[in-house]
Amino acid sequence: MKYIDEYRDSTIARALVKEIAGRVTRPAVLMEICGGQTHTIMRYGLDELLPPQIELVHGPGCPVCVTPLETIDKAIALASRPEVTLVSYGDMLRVPGSRSDLFRVKAAGGDVRVAYSPMESVKIAQANPGRQVVFFAIGFETTAPANAMAVFQARRLGLANFSLLVSHVLVPPAIRLLLSQPANRVQGFIAPGHVCTVVGYLDYEDLARQFHVPIVVGGFEPLDLLEAVLMLVRQLEEGRAQVENQYARSVTRAGNLAAQQIMEEVFEVCDRKWRGIGSIPASGYRLRPAFAAFDAERVFGLADHGVEEPAECISALVLQGLKKPPDCPAFGLRCTPLSPLGAPMVSAEGACAAYYQYRRHAVPAG
Ligand code: SF4
Description:
By secondary structure, this protein is an alpha/beta fold. It contains 16 helices and eleven strands. The strands form two sheets. It has a six-stranded mixed β-sheet with strand order 4-3-5-6-11-10, with helices on both faces. A hairpin with a 3-residue loop joins strand 10 and strand 11. It is globular and about 65 Å long. It binds iron/sulfur cluster. Residues 312-315, 318, 325, 328, 330-331, 335, 340-342, 344-345, 352 line the site of iron/sulfur cluster (SF4).
């Protein structure tokens, strides 16, 4: 990749749209998994450029959005402890827990810090041996290698004051769940290119075979996504169901083996609860027993407790592609980025925030 503009060229975009329109002969519901892809689609109006037979629905690939309310409550409880420094990616701070959020804890004097990398939190722990430093380790396979490396380094450094609050989720089990549901309408998936950069796409080949569904590993720029749609349309029109790689400038079939090795050493697969969706078997990572000393839930004895989502929030349906944000009665009225009811309105990758930012005209009259 030389220039980002190459992937935003309007002449090529129009040619791709024309080719899609020339090939599609029947309705097709396609889902982009990643919230970053959703934002590109909304920002450039790609869904409005496509022929009417093609409907794009938005998937559960926003890590902030699927982090369970209970886990956010645990982060808030930790950040409220006087001996704890809680380090987090920035967009977790405004995500509402059941009673508060991390911003409010920080405003009330809690030691909550924003980091771009978990290694920053290791440095904070090194520099502050009198404090317990907890990194809020959320995300998909994309962020897992860096979080695994942070724990690995903390152990190498002999840090006794560093731990992770882990809420890692994995994409293929979520696609499997969506495809297994009777209400599923999705006929083709744009898989997340950054996730596949790490783990490759062998698992997606199993899904394509088992459910006879085409999957295209896609990038994040407008031309990436239009090309991925074209590749899906070609497969659907030809009756094929394969995994194809549109994002070949970053993704290989086997992925990044060094990253997978550190993930494998530090994490093991577990059942994981997804906000709004519920527990999905084998859909997350937790620390292996050898790294139990770095597990904040064990270190601080945090227990699970059931909490209710706001009744009005239909994020569960939005995250499964069954509804779109403007279908929510609270969208743009009682739920805005400044006053979010649910996580998809908070996160930079959330579908509700994308519609609010780029499709404000879709806000219903209140
Ligand atoms: S608009 Fe707000 S309340 Fe509605 S689904 Fe999205 S986050 Fe939930």
